[in-house]
Amino acid sequence: MSYQHTIQHRTYRFDNLRMLLARATPFRSGDALAGLAADSYEERVAAQLALADVPLKIFLEETVIPYEKDEVTRLILDTHNKTAFAPISHFTVGELRDWLLSDAADTAALQALSPGLTPEMVAAVSKLMRNQDLISVADKCEVVTRFRNTIGLKGHLSVRLQPNHNTDDPRGIAASIIDGLLYGSGDAVIGINPATDSPQAVVTLLQMLDNLRLQFDIPTQSCVLCHVTTAMQIMHHAPVDLVFQSIAGTEQANRSFGIDLALLKEAHEGALSLRRGTVGQNVMYFETGQGSALSANAHSGIDQQTCEVRAYAVARQFAPLLVNTVVGFIGPEYLFDGKQIIRAALEDHCCGKLLGLPMGVDICYTNHAEADQDDMDNLLTLLGVAGCNFIMGVPGADDIMLNYQSTSFHDALYVRKVLGLHAAPEFEQWLQQQGIMDHTGAILPVSNAHRLLGYSATANR
């Protein structure tokens, strides 16, 4: 099916839905690199106007990757909830945008609708939204998940404590963890990106994290972000809380990561069998990022934002505790500057929330991007207003192992304070019991006699 729109006697034609979605996307360097971006601002507007008139039912009939060639497409269509979709089945994309911004689209209505939305519908409507629209809609969504604490409640913002070390030195990692805990970070997860994916190194780190958690009775979860196959190999003789994996929106891109849906299903079932959660059993942790499929030459001619939202269908299938878009990590080839990173993060967060995912954002950039920490401050504040489930807490905002810039423990304190946000309730209670935080959320001075400062990573290996 082809689509068209005329502006001042010039008719712009789009051969198929895949092309229409690509041309309608706000400009970013990755789509230009792939030859998918609109040639002019006028063409982009024409595509957006044409897209606004597309009935939502078309997305169930015309696929961006053929059903028989891609298991992500099959997952999207085979799991589509027609009952949930029925109330809006007569809408166009433009009408869906208008409804999402109306008072009728409250939290309960959005939660009920979520199973009836496909990634392509959600990607399409986001392309018609201004930044404030993305923030407004996301703020109305609430996606709550549980393992040892409760994440995603309105008025709360959690933090992944990210204590990476370039040699996996337990002492360096422990120092970062203690620092983060004393600043109120760590309720989303204490999650380490290991310098090596060897099973023994991962086990050593998991044991250290679990010993720390048990010693201080911390109501949180841990994760070493190894490949899913490594986690499966060790999960029955190591304290595996969450199973991590990077995912993408096409079968080919996921294969480049060494995974498919069957493997993720096996890992999910294995993690559930451990029954390590205390208040819930959301056991998966997924990371995504615009440009990942393109960087693997596995985007199938789809714009990078639509590819990204298709990855959320994969995540949704496994009821994760956490999903975060590592928005600026892949580099300026895909998101060139602060403006593109901010726009992409707001899109990802809103689209993920509409699909029912517990979305967090790694507010970040690489050192060769045209971005700086002021851009990250802006994005952090916008996401706080939008109701983001969690962000990253990195010592000094500078990850010495992955060599990129993110957000710090202090940044998390800032956004919680100015927006009146709280940590996960179980974790916040623990912080108060430990004398780290008072009942107003203010961080208290720490004496040299504080229990956490007596922790020894080497003694607990």
From TrEMBL:
May I have one GO cellular component term? ethanolamine ammonia-lyase complex
Q: Which cofactor does it need?
A: adenosylcob(III)alamin
GO process annotations (BP): amino acid metabolic process; ethanolamine catabolic process
Localisation per UniProt entry: Bacterial microcompartment
State where substrate binds: R160, L161, Q162, N193, E287, D362
* Cofactor: record remark: Binds between the large and small subunits.
On whether Transmembrane helix is a keyword of this UniProt record, the answer is no
Question: InterPro entries from the entry?
Answer: Aldolase_TIM (IPR013785), EutB (IPR010628), EutB_dom_2_sf (IPR044939), EutB_N_sf (IPR044941)
Q: Which Gene3D superfamilies match?
A: Aldolase class I (3.20.20.70), ethanolamine ammonia-lyase heavy chain domain like (2.30.170.30), lyase (1.10.220.70)
Recorded E.C. number(s)? 4.3.1.7
User: Which Pfam family is one of this chain's hits?
Assistant: EutB
* MF term (GO), any: ethanolamine ammonia-lyase activity
Q: Which family does it belong to?
A: Belongs to the EutB family.
Quaternary data:
The basic unit is a heterodimer which dimerizes to form tetramers. The heterotetramers trimerize; 6 large subunits form a core ring with 6 small subunits projecting outwards.
* Functional summary from the UniProt entry: Catalyzes the deamination of various vicinal amino-alcohols to oxo compounds. Allows this organism to utilize ethanolamine as the sole source of nitrogen and carbon in the presence of vitamin B12.
Instruction: Kindly provide the name given to this protein in its UniProt entry.
Output: Ethanolamine ammonia-lyase large subunit
UniProt organism field: Chitinophaga tropicalis
* Record gene name: eutB
